[in-house]
Hints:
Largest sheet: none
Number of helices: 2
Low-confidence stretches: none
Oligomer: single chain
Amino acid sequence: MPEDLSPWDWIFWIALIILLGWALGKAIGLISSPAWMETLPIFTIIFMAGALWQKINTVAGDIEDIKKLNERFNRLEYEHEIAMGRVKIQKH
Length: 92
């Protein structure tokens, strides 16, 4: 796996492996558990959803940072064009 995985990525993938392992073990009869142990998939899905939610929030923050950077770049580019005399400023 790549070295740049966040802790939330690790939580998500570990939870997914646990869920798939449980489902496979249950399907082939390796796991015969009492009813209270049937909650493992529910808790695993909750952890996966939490990790996914955190990852989405991180990506959304990164997107906002990119938008701000793009706005700053556009402003700088426009000011450069003015300084170079390529854009005429209209006075009202």
